[in-house]
Each structure stands twice: as structure tokens, then as C-alpha cells.
């Protein structure tokens, strides 16, 4: 079944590419680029099943309702919450579910994409909609450091950081997961664990919303900069 679905998607890519060669549009581009997410998750489900792990594939476009700003669509938070509870939550009650990030659909069913950081944003949106106790995000970035370890080898890894601090670091040039993508988790007080797939033991950090009573004793947290 998965093989047949991938073959169907490959045929669809050919059709879309031919259409794009004649008259391209942002809507067509979104439809085309969504196939990477769809196929990679189908393959991942197959790998899990081969290893004896039962997993269901779920099309995120069924629940990630957005506006029609193709390329940088904005989610309809209320609709996402309602659709997620109706369609995704029951699947999760049955077991492991593999779905996509970055892609959604507008009111007419046309595929949209969330733009840069869309996969992390999707994780936070679904975590909020499912009332999750934690959101885990795995990247290829080995943690957050007090400064760029390539420039200063003595830089220390930061294990706990507030969203506000990470936002300032990103603004001033630090290569960190941009907190804007995690706003759904922030507003719902959901802690976010970010780990490195390359260094799962060493490259992890917590990004948490600090309590209102928190007082920071350190005079500084990190040094960041942008290359001119």
C-alpha cells in the first residue's frame, strides 16, 4: 500500500512539474514541495513496520487548517485545535502516528506551506492542540552555547534557557531554533525539549517559559554576533 502511494505521488510530481513549466504559481509550488514531506513520512512508517513497530501514517493537511497565503500560510488556531481533537487525537489513542510538518491546507482543500521553520511550528501547533505535556524537537544542531564554539572552543553548552533569552540570541545572530516557531507552546506553557540527532546525549537543551518569579543571577548568558 505504501509503495503504491509513493508511486502515485511520484506520478503526481511529474504532472505538477509539467504544469509549473507552463504557468507557475505559489499555490502550485506549495502543492509540489509538499510531496517531500508526504513521501518521507510514508517511508518512515515502512521502516518502523519492518522493525516491528506498528505505526499509522496521517496526512497533516487534514488538521492543519491555514489561510491561503501560499508559501507563508498562517494557521487558523481554533480550527487546528478542533480538527486535531476530531481526527488526530483518536488515532494517537490507538498507538504511534507519523505525520508531517511544514504543510497544511486552506479552506478549499488546497495545499499550503508554513514557510521557514514550518516543521518546528507544526510540532508546537499540534502539541498545543493535543494539550501535550511536552514537545520534543530533534535537529542536527548540537545545542545552544554561550558563544559560537567554532570561534571560541571554550564555549559552554546551555542546558536550560528561557524563550525570551533564545529570542534575543536569535535576534543578535546566534544560530538557534527561532523561538517564533514555538509560540504555540509558549502561550500554552508547554516545555520544549530540543535535541541533536547527531549528538543525542550531548546536544540537548530545554527551552522553557520561566516562572514570573524567576530572577536571573547571571549578568550575561551568551555572546552572539552577525557577520558583515
TrEMBL record:
Associated pathway: Amino-acid biosynthesis; L-methionine biosynthesis via de novo pathway; L-homoserine from L-aspartate: step 1/3; Amino-acid biosynthesis; L-lysine biosynthesis via DAP pathway; (S)-tetrahydrodipicolinate from L-aspartate: step 1/4; Amino-acid biosynthesis; L-threonine biosynthesis; L-threonine from L-aspartate: step 1/5
Report the transmembrane regions from the record: none
Which GO cellular component does the record give, naming just one? cytosol
Which InterPro entries does the record match to this protein? AceGlu_kinase-like_sf, Asp/Glu/Uridylate_kinase, Asp_kinase, AsparK_Bifunc_asparK/hSer_DH
Catalyses which reaction? L-aspartate + ATP = 4-phospho-L-aspartate + ADP
Could you state one GO biological process linked to this protein? Answer: homoserine biosynthetic process
Broad enzyme group: transferase
Superkingdom of origin organism:
Bacteria
**What's the EC number here?**
2.7.2.4
Q: Which residues form the Aspartate/glutamate/uridylate kinase domain?
A: 24-195
UniProt keywords (A-Z) are: Amino-acid biosynthesis, ATP-binding, Kinase, Nucleotide-binding, Transferase
Q: Which Pfam families match?
A: AA_kinase
Q: Hey, which family's this protein in?
A: Belongs to the aspartokinase family.
Q: What is this protein called?
A: Aspartokinase
Gene name, Swiss-Prot/TrEMBL = lysC_2
Amino acid at each position: 500500500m505504501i509503495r503504491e502511494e509513493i508511486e502515485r505521488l511520484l506520478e503526481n510530481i511529474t504532472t505538477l512539474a509539467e504544469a509549473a513549466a507552463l504557468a507557475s504559481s505559489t499555490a502550485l509550488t506549495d502543492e509540489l514541495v509538499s510531496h517531500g514531506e508526504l513521501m518521507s513520512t510514508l517511508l518512515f512508517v515502512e521502516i518502523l513496520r519492518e522493525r516491528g513497530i506498528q505505526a499509522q501514517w496521517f496526512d497533516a493537511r487534514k488538521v492543519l487548517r491555514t489561510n491561503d497565503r501560499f508559501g507563508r500560510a498562517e494557521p487558523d488556531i481554533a480550527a487546528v485545535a478542533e480538527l486535531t481533537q476530531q481526527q488526530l487525537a483518536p488515532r494517537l489513542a490507538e498507538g504511534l502516528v507519523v505525520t508531517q510538518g511544514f504543510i497544511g491546507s486552506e479552506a478549499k482543500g488546497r495545499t499550503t506551506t508554513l514557510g521557514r521553520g514550518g516543521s518546528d511550528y507544526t510540532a508546537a501547533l499540534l502539541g498545543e492542540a493535543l494539550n501535550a505535556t511536552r514537545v520534543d524537537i530533534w535537529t542536527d544542531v548540537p545545542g545552544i552555547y554561550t558563544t559560537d564554539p567554532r570561534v571560541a572552543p571554550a564555549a559552554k553548552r546551555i542546558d536550560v534557557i528561557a524563550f525570551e533569552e533564545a529570542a534575543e540570541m536569535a535576534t543578535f545572530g546566534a544560530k538557534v531554533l527561532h523561538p517564533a516557531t514555538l509560540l504555540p507552546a509558549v502561550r500554552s506553557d508547554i516545555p520544549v525539549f530540543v535535541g541533536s540527532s547527531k549528538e543525542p546525549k550531548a546536544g540537548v537543551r530545554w527551552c522553557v517559559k520561566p516562572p514570573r518569579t524567576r530572577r536571573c543571577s547571571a549578568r550575561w548568558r551568551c555572546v552572539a554576533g552577525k557577520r558583515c
